[in-house]
Protein 1
Amino acid sequence: MPITILIGAQWGDEGKGRVVDWLAASADIVARYAGGDNAGHTVALDGEVYKLHLVPSGILHSNVVSIMGNGMVINPVNLLREIEALRRIGVDIRPERLVISSRAHIITPAHVALDKAKELALGDGKIGTTLRGIGPAYLDKTGRAGIRTGDMLLDVEEFADRLVSAIEASNEDLRAQGLETLDAREAAQSYLEAADFLRPYIKDVSIYLHEALKNGKLVLCEGAQGTLLDIDHGSYPFVTSSSPTAGGALTGLGVGPLHVDRVLGVAKAFSTRVGGGPMPTELDGDIAEHFRGSGANFWDEFGTTTGRPRRCGWLDVVMLRYAVSVNGFSELMLTKMDILSGLEELKLATAYDIDGERHHYPPVTNEQLERAKPIYETMPGWRENISNCRSFNELPAAARQYINRVAELCDVPIDIVSVGPERDQLVQKAAAPTAAFKR
Ligand code: IMP
């Protein structure tokens, strides 16, 4: 069956962009289904580094159609900028190659202003959002007050009126907080220009996919953010406002579950998090620095969208086990295994001790999670640089042991790991049934 869903199993930044890029080589369609330009997917290709925020990573393959689903929130001006930047470096973007759902919601300049205002008002308790207007846009969506990409297909004046009314409505909220309001007509101007460009790209994605699936096309759903940032299943309220999990792919694209035959989780070989909220295995000091890197390399642990240093820690198997259960992963892939090289020993958090009780899954409240003491299992490390390994047998025994133990603790197969950012820096088990997108 033709749909693979790829999902971040942690707090985002798992290296999904590079996995999507790899799988896209044998897919027909790559579809984003949640989030907006809060995402930052990095793909390294022939020495070039591509940073994508809105456009699906499939765009780097000439044979793939990229889709932006109804579950997304889209800032049309930022999308236009991203398309222009990609075109400047030779990426072919035409309406035949990029399809934007007519049911996605539009992020207005007022949403961006409100995001900043809310974070400011929360002070020390802030969520640490990416300040892209994501939360306020989803709030208008669920409050039935949003405007949609399909509205860009209306007569220009009518779209302008809707946009201006939406901004003016948000101005009320800004005013209520004593903040500067926006000149709605002026703020709308760049949106009208973007709408003019984007119009031919806007279609009914659900119907497009329905037809494509009937014609035997293979679809890869590209998750953004991660399971632990999910509005329902993440560590609320320190989450994003969408559903990056497996269920979100279906509602965020308008496809039925019977088309899905593979749910691939992607996790980093250690843990990272940006923004606020509890992170039980967070570390300070040398090991955190080892994971984070200096920032000199694009793969170091600094946000692709915000540049913020990421919080780093040991691999949290409790969270990973939870991600397996929420998404029903058919398999898990570990990225950045090469970063573990050079550490004397490695730790896996296999359970939490909370007030003297052992927990194998995360508790529901952040208060409990703040008190969670990880129970670690210590494993031997390895010194060798593994970035040139291409088969499991070439990996040091300790690396294989680490991978197998994570698979065992999460009760899910791990047949593929990455050992560097380039397309070919993947290690697959010899008989991995999962190695390619199945035709
Ligand atoms: P928002 O999505 O900008 O509202 O941010 C909400 C939370 O999700 C914050 O903790 C962000 O740091 C986090 N977040 C949003 N997008 C990403 C991402 O792509 N990677 C990692 N964290 C993210």
Note: The CA atoms of residues 206 and 355 lie 48 Å apart.
Protein 2
Amino acid sequence: MDFYSGQISKLIEEFSKLPGIGAKSAQRLAFHVINLPKDQVEELAGAIVNARNTVKYCKNCCTLTDNDLCPICSNENRNHRVIMVVENPRDLAAYEKTQKFDGVYHVLHGAISPMLGIGPGDIKLKELILRLQGDVDEVIIATNSSLEGETTAMYISKLIKPTGIKVSRIASGVPVGGDLEFIDEVTLLRALEGRTEL
Ligand code: ZN
């Protein structure tokens, strides 16, 4: 891309590193940004830097938040004795959109994948086990129905079983290999209601 100035090429290169952004989209975004009023560009850049600097893991459930505790963990009206385990914050958001789950969550930030070399120590499992020392009635495993999601669900259920806490898995209304975040709310609710004890 020598026909662009160095700064533009650099901007295109940075955009093309983002997920789902191909070469064409990166160019379009770069030229869009260059044509924006300066104050808007500063706002955009500032929002990116601020988000990166201030967003952290919730001390309790490990989802992303601005504070020590996320809004769900700090909400006294939620049932803190029922924990739904999900792979990432987007899955949490998918269940929150249904407005039918009043428990709390635990975000693993990934799933166990021997093929990709991701082991139990690479996801937020220790944090989950620590939480189980408190008053917990049920752990609902809502990892994706991919091979990694199933492997993770099995691993977690074996880990929890000896504690006597009820462990359940969301029903397979969720298509095999399906990412929770792309599934409609009705299917998500059916999967939750039809969960089976492991
Ligand atoms: Zn939280």
Note: Strands lie at 56-57, 64-65, 79-86, 103-107, 138-141, 166-169, 196-197.
